[in-house]
Design a protein that fits this description.
- By secondary structure, the protein is mainly α.
- Helix content is 63%, strand content 2%.
- The strands form 2 sheets. Strands 1-2 form a two-stranded antiparallel sheet.
- Strand 3 and strand 4 form a beta hairpin.
């Protein structure tokens, strides 16, 4: 690693640290301060009246029901738009309908904030589909993640002694505020910045140009900047082009590359401060931020270090290895810009990529896969990342309680059998669907038929795909052709279950915790802030991840690294 690599990583995390508090304060003001400014309050009332929505607060069952119905309807609408694509406007390339299995997969993908794309965007989706179906869901799926976090946070921080606050808020109010006051204004500003840097935004048909060599080339056009902005801010990740953020029309300069990385961590980081304000314990919020910060910066340094090393399989070739492993990376970003982007996009649920993750070294790819397998809690998706981290906090507090032999308490509330059972289901869910899906695909001829690599790397490609879809990340190792009936349907199931079952479990926990009375802290109460708590939480996260996935990671990237060192390929 060069001094420039160290400076890029250090400067990025310094900027993130500086922006966390102001973003957190703004989010707290939007969701928790009452009343809203005079202009916004009457506007909200008119919207609710127009839509026939009762803005009264809901218990966890009503909140969960609203969330599920809204998102299932979203899947249906996106599916219909994709199916009717030839009949709709803004289709200058006359693209046909999307096949039903791919349309279902894409609809579930964008509604669950996964943005898994088993297709090439510029040759499959019309401008109308990109805007009215996909970009529309980029706003709503991100807003849904925010609503899930808010409901859980209120369940943990409100007390039954407050009487009028034993509910979890209102799903429709939280959804509207997220879309209108957070993502829409931020996306407009970000899109204008992207356009100023060269990201395209038009409705022109594809351009036919003649290259310097005299060959013909087609350049796809379209409304890219508007989708790029919310794709990043909402940690969605779906690219307008197949090359995603490696395409110069989506991510043209090192400045836009740096800005995109900042933007997909900005809201997840700010929410830690928001939660500290909601819990009336800012130090606790900063402690959670510190855990995420440590894991994120560790992953970024490890990925950059591994990618700054030459590929041992290419050592014998007469080429320069000074830049490290440049295979699959853009020269304008280099190893540092590509590695930092890759590490942090897998920390969050963004899934955007500016390099081919399939071309990373085995250990570099291992870090990316581990980031996802930890549960997308290292900042994670907007709302959903802190949602998952709070459940790990409860696990850590429960384990601390067992160590001292007393009923554990979190934010003044006792953690009892019901909450523990729900959390155990949450922790067990992801390994079950990820490992069973991977096993089924590797043991079936239909699953292996679209795999381009054998051996440990082939295993890594399938494991990465199931991890990415179940954890709603959306990035991929490109050696697997996922646009088949088997994978389209299997991944649709993974994305839906991986998104909504954990939310339901978390909302059930919130509904149980919100009714509990506060207990007075004593000398036996475990402090959920400070160095000891930070170390315990990091240890719990790493231990659960290691015990669950280490065997399959050994068969995949670790074995591939060992064989690459001795010059063996498959």
């Amino acid at each position: 690693m060069t001094l420039n690599d160290w400076l890029q990583i250090g400067f990025f995390f310094l900027i993130l640290l500086i922006l966390t508090k102001p973003v957190g304060l703004y989010l707290y003001a939007i969701y928790e301060k009452k009343p809203l400014p005079k202009i916004l309050g009457p506007f909200e009332k008119r919207v609710f009246t127009l839509c026939g929505i009762n803005p009264q607060e809901q218990d966890w069952k009503a909140y969960a029901t609203s969330l599920l119905i809204f998102n299932v309807l979203g899947i249906f609408i996106v599916f219909i738009i994709e199916s009717l694509q030839p009949l709709l406007p803004l289709n200058p390339q006359n693209l046909p309908s999307v096949p039903w299995d791919l349309a279902l997969n894409t609809a579930v993908s964008f509604v669950t904030n996964t943005n898994w794309q088993a297709y090439s965007g510029e040759t499959t989706m019309s401008y109308f589909t990109q805007m009215s179906a996909l970009t529309w869901q980029n706003f709503l799926s991100a807003s849904t993640g925010m609503t899930a976090f808010l409901a859980l946070a209120r369940g943990l921080t409100r007390h039954s002694t407050e009487g009028d606050k034993i509910t979890l808020g209102n799903f429709w109010v939280d959804l509207l505020r997220s879309a209108l006051y957070v993502f829409l204004p931020a996306s407009i500003l970000f899109a204008l910045i992207l356009v100023s840097q060269g990201v395209i935004q038009n409705f022109d048909p594809a351009l036919e140009i003649t290259t310097l060599e005299g060959a013909k080339q087609t350049l796809a056009m379209g409304p890219v900047a508007s989708q790029e902005a919310i794709k990043i801010l909402g940690t969605n990740g779906g690219g307008f082009f197949n090359a995603n953020s490696a395409h110069p029309f989506e991510n043209p300069t090192p400045f836009t590359n740096f800005l995109q990385i900042i933007c997909f961590l900005l809201i997840p980081a700010g929410l830690t401060y928001t939660f500290g304000k909601m819990a009336h314990d800012k130090k606790h919020g900063w402690s959670i931020f510190s855990v995420m910060f440590f894991l994120a910066i560790s992953g970024a340094f490890l990925t950059t270090y591994f990618e700054s090393q030459p590929n041992p399989l290419l050592n014998a070739l007469p080429i320069s290895h000074d830049q490290g492993n440049m295979e699959g990376k853009e020269v304008r970003f280099g190893v540092a810009g590509s590695s930092l982007f890759a590490s942090l996009t897998t920390d969050t649920s963004c899934g955007a990529n500016n390099a081919s993750h399939d071309c990373f070294t085995p250990l570099g790819g291992l870090v990316l896969m581990t980031n996802i397998l930890l549960g997308e809690i290292v900042f994670g998706g907007v709302g959903s990342g802190l949602f998952g981290m709070l459940l790990y906090v409860i696990i850590s507090v429960f384990l601390a309680g067992l160590m001292v032999g007393r009923t554990p308490e979190y934010l003044g509330k006792k953690i009892e059998g019901k909450e523990v059972r729900l959390i155990v289901l949450y922790v067990a869910l992801y390994p079950i669907i990820i490992l069973l899906g991977t096993s089924a695909s590797l043991l079936s001829s239909i699953g292996l038929s679209s795999l381009n690599n054998t051996g440990p790397h082939g295993l890594s490609e399938v494991l990465y795909a199931f991890s990415s879809t179940a954890q709603n990340n959306g990035s991929a190792f490109s050696g697997l052709n996922a646009n088949t009936l088997w994978y389209n349907l299997f991944f649709s199931f993974e994305m839906f279950v991986g998104r909504f079952l954990p939310i339901l479990l978390g909302l059930a926990i919130a509904g149980s915790m919100v009714r509990k009375k506060a207990v007075i802290a004593s000398s036996g109460t475990f402090e959920t802030k400070g160095f000891l708590f930070i170390c315990l939480l990091i240890g719990v996260i790493i231990t659960i991840g290691a015990l669950t996935y280490f065997p399959v990671l050994t068969l995949g990237p670790i074995t591939e690294q060992i064989f690459s060192q001795i010059g063996r390929t498959f």
